[in-house]
């Protein structure tokens, strides 16, 4: 038995290693926007499999030149950029339980999807279909070489969507907003009746804008108007006095209320000429003297 194999809940996992040994996925607050869908066929059926590729990091000039180099600002991939690694299918990778960078292969993904869908080994695919699959996979080298149907947001539409959803806002020239743009490739291989969806993710920074959805580290409780940080030292959850609005410590709270009660009672005793009774009550609250019910 390999030393890399591990047990989880009593079940033996053959392919588990450090790449999926995580309690949770990383939480990201970077906004994302579905920018375009490119398809080799017009269809409304659901994909048989979806593959999310590793994110591609581009500078804003490169991103803009790659997808918005037309005078109108419409989404467009110039054929001269078809061999650029950012849109090349052969240059993409994705993460699995056994590796963080598995190279993407269109024909291989279609075979896997067919095998899973039909519960048959990939060797059951006929030689004719295999040859045709390799042929169309060779011709589909990049996002720019897919002919069929596509829909994409223009530059203005993309910015308006991000601003309207509250993800970014206009800022000064020194600021930039980090955004993930998603371009989906929908590819249908009719001989095997397989439709796969491949998501390309491009992370870039838009100059002149700023992110607006960052959550502050020193967030205050919603019902408080006090800007001081919460001090939870010595709080007894079983004590009603543990909850108070000015967020001071419990001891400080008790001291303040005792002083206030003493001052109020003293003022009341002067005005009402009942000094002896008020004095006794004040002593009891301050803990200096005890009393039994008979003394009342």
Structure characteristics:
296 residues; six-stranded mixed sheet; two-stranded antiparallel sheet; 6 helices; 21% strand
Describe this structure in words.
The chain is an alpha/beta fold and 296 residues long. It folds into two domains: 19-211, no CATH class; 240-295, no CATH class. The protein contains six helices and twelve strands. Mean pLDDT is 77; it is low at 1-19, 240-253 and 289-296.
Largest sheet at a glance? 6 strands, mixed
Number of domains: 2
Fraction in beta strands? 15-25%
What order do the helices and strands follow? EEEEEHEEHHEHEEEEHH
- In which range does the helix fraction lie? 25-40%
Taking Cα atoms only, what radius of gyration do you get, to the nearest Å?
33 Å
Shape, please?
globular
- Mean of all residue-level pLDDT scores: 77
Compute the number of helices. Answer: 6
Measured distance between first and last alpha carbons: 81 Å
Structural class: alpha/beta
- In total, the number of strands is 12
Contiguous uncertain segments of 5+ residues: 1-19, 240-253, 289-296
């Amino acid at each position: 038995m390999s030393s890399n194999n591990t047990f989880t809940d009593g079940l033996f996992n053959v392919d588990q290693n450090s790449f999926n040994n995580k309690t949770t996925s990383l939480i990201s607050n970077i906004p994302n926007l579905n920018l375009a869908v490119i398809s080799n066929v017009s269809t409304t059926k659901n994909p048989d499999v979806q593959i999310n590729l590793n994110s591609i990091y581009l500078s804003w000039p490169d991103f803009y030149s790659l997808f918005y180099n037309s005078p109108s600002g419409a989404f467009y991939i110039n054929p001269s950029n078809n061999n650029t690694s950012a849109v090349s299918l052969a240059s993409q990778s994705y993460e699995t339980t056994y590796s963080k960078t598995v190279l993407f292969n269109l024909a291989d993904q279609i075979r896997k999807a067919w095998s899973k869908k039909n519960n048959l080994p990939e060797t059951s695919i006929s030689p004719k279909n295999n040859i045709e699959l390799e042929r169309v996979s060779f011709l589909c080298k990049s996002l720019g070489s897919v002919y069929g149907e596509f829909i994409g947001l223009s530059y203005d539409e993309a910015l308006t969507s991000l601003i309207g959803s509250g993800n970014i806002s206009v800022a000064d020239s020194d600021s930039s907003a980090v955004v993930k743009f998603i371009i989906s490739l929908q590819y249908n291989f009719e001989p095997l009746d397989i439709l796969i969806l491949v998501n390309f993710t491009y992370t870039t920074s838009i100059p002149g804008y700023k992110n607006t959805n960052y959550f502050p580290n020193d967030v205050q409780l919603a019902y408080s108007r006090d800007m001081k940080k919460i001090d939870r030292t010595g709080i007894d959850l079983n004590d009603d006095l543990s909850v108070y609005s000015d967020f001071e410590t419990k001891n400080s709270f008790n001291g303040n209320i005792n002083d206030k009660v003493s001052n109020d009672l003293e003022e009341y005793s002067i005005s009402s000429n009942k000094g002896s009774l008020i004095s006794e009550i004040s002593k009891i609250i301050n803990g200096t003297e005890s009393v039994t019910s008979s003394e009342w």
